[in-house]
Amino acid sequence: MLRSSGHHVTAIGRLKPTGAVSLADQDAWRRALTEVEAVMHLAGRAHVMNDVAASPLGEYRKINRDGTLCVAQAAVEAGVRRFVFVSSIGVLGNESGPRGFSEETPPAPVEPYAVSKYEAELALKDLEHRTGLEIVVVRPPLVYGPHVKGNFHRLLRLVANGVPLPLGSVRNRRSFIGVTNLSELLLLCAVRPLGAQRLFVACDGRDVSTPELLSMMSSQMNRPNRVFRFPTTTLRLLARLAGADRELRRLTGNLHVDSALASSVLQWAPSKSLETGIGEMVDWFVRSST
């Protein structure tokens, strides 16, 4: 998207041919960021299920906090003007209240991942005050689209395999953001003058319940909808007994995000609807599974 907008892009990742650089190698980052105007930092430790690390929070901090600060410090030394950091809506907690999450919501991270992201935000703001580097923080909810991983991929597999899911009685409200819509937002965060020194939360603009999301997936996949009604209180009790309380809360809790600030300040609006984005994700999943 950046390239198609006329920008010269240097991509750095874990694998070649993008050019692998350790997050801790500040000298390498300084060289890589020479003559770079803006950095979009998305690297992080995430989607670690059944974490066996002696200190999960310590591992998250090493990558998500310390690694981010190393890259940002190198950006300062290389003369970079703006640093766009992709954080997480989890910084605000795992569930939103009736008013939803906005930029004004006090941080309340619960998971080690979210704690490390919030600590990275604080470290970046301190660096901004000391150096003048323009920090822009974006806290997206769960991101979906082709090549998705984590919880969305697990849901896709369950739907594709026709697994009966006792979630039909769930009446929650969840916000998501498609990868195209998020990319458009990040581009604006990097180039719009009014984006400097800002914090944004953002979503697709339409909330759905978990049963609605699963129905959408099964319809796009041309698979029977195996979601059935089951008392939610009993479901929570069974999940607690099975040690799956956290996973169930992710499926049944409310997480509403208010994108009003990003829309007004950056003139950003999602270009793809939730239905279109889910359809593209399902098409990719079906093709990659055959």
CATH class of the domain at 1-139, please?
A: Alpha Beta
- Helix fraction by DSSP (H/I, runs of at least 4): 40-55%
Structural class: alpha/beta
**How many angstroms separate the termini?**
28 Å
- Count of DSSP helices? 10
Number of strands: 6
Rg result? 20 Å
Strand coverage percent: 5-15%
What's this, in brief?
This protein has 10 helices and 6 strands, in the order H-E-H-E-H-E-E-H-E-H-E-H-H-H-H-H. With 290 residues, it is an alpha/beta fold. The protein has a 4-stranded parallel β-sheet, with helices on both faces. The protein has a two-stranded parallel sheet with strand order 4-5.
Question: Which terms would index this structure?
Answer:
290 residues; alpha/beta; globular; two-stranded parallel sheet; four-stranded parallel beta sheet; Rossmann fold
